[in-house]
Specification:
323 residues; TIM Barrel; alpha/beta; single chain
Length: 323
């Protein structure tokens, strides 16, 4: 199905929890949020039924998000159910990686195809500073475990924060010289209660690419790995991996938007930074067909977000919708 702007909507991001074991500076308030009651969160079986109904309407690609999805118990049960749905071509996971190393093989065996890992630093003390939690997280071990389990392509996402972690941009870029990993740099999106981070902390992607080119001895345009997102990719000559940039502030990609988002409590959010939502949990639990609700959602999907006007669609934190 297409929305009112003619965009083909084939990608559903599914938040399975609003909780997280980190409190990242750019994503969640230090003291957390008021968590959703358990009975309001969709059960795995409900999520799978929702996807079964939306797949014939064009949904072919799924990404499981949070909060932090790996804090929800037995997530592999959901992967088994989703991967068994005919017509689902791609099942991915976004995670902070803290629990991934021992779970990567379990998830792959359950049908997960690939993984994105948040890597905002390679230094333990800085990871703890940004996450405001010290869980002893080793991002390189998480990435290696994902690669070994066949969760490829492995993508490493860094939110670049001026004066906080931007000095590590070259360090992450150099990983692509040795590993078939795809390092993506994301421009900071100042949202809601993350008022301590402002436009002064944004590092434009053009500057990031200049730093990467200097560290890698040059960059050339690259195809990049398969996926559903708006990243632009580049490769150092002969490198097995790539670097990419995601530019929500300096370049708009709303015209190519192919996605909608399901919140953990069953609301379909048609724009990350929009205010438009439709309740799917109620109709789902009443046994009503979801196709009319999906058609309405796409008809009302806004043409673009208003983040550049500092309107984040009422979000208090990115963790509420899985980014």
């Amino acid at each position: 199905m297409r929305d009112a702007q003619g965009r083909l909507i084939s990608y559903l991001r599914i938040s399975v929890t609003d909780r997280c074991n980190f409190r990242c500076l750019y994503c969640m308030p230090k003291d957390g949020l008021v968590w959703l009651p358990r009975d309001e969160i969709l059960r795995y079986e409900e999520i799978a039924e929702l996807v079964r109904q939306l797949q014939p309407l064009g949904i072919r690609r799924l990404r499981v998000t949070g909060g932090e999805p790996t804090v929800r118990p037995e997530l592999e049960k959901l992967f088994r159910q989703l991967s068994a749905i005919p017509g689902i071509e791609d099942l991915a996971l976004s995670t902070n990686g803290a629990k991934l190393a021992p779970l990567a093989r379990v998830y792959a065996d359950a049908g997960l195809d690939r993984v994105n890992i948040s890597v905002d630093s390679l230094r333990r003390e800085r990871i703890a500073q940004i996450a405001r939690r010290d869980l002893g997280f080793d991002p390189l071990a998480a990435a290696a475990a994902a690669e070994e389990a066949g969760l490829a392509p492995v993508k490493l996402n860094m939110v670049v924060l001026r004066g906080i972690n931007d000095d590590e941009v070259p360090d992450l870029a150099r990983l692509t010289l040795e590993h078939p990993w795809h390092v993506r740099y994301i421009e900071l999106m100042p949202v809601g209660e993350m008022s301590g981070l402002t436009g002064a902390h944004v590092v434009p992607s053009a500057e990031v690419l200049e730093r990467c080119a200097a560290a890698l001895g040059g960059l050339e345009k690259a195809e990049g790995p398969g996926g559903n997102g708006p990243a632009a990719y580049y490769r150092a000559p002969g490198a097995p991996g790539t670097v990419g940039v995601i530019t929500p502030l300096t370049h708009s990609y709303c015209g190519e938007c192919n996605r909608v988002r399901l919140t953990a409590d069953g609301r379909l959010r048609t724009c990350l930074f929009g205010r438009h939502e439709i309740d799917f949990r109620g109709p789902l639990r009443r046994g009503e067909p979801l196709a009319p609700y999906f058609a309405r959602a796409l008809a009302e999907k806004p043409p673009e977000h208003h983040l550049l006007q500092l309107d984040a669609g009422g979000l208090k934190a990115l963790s509420q919708v899985g980014g």
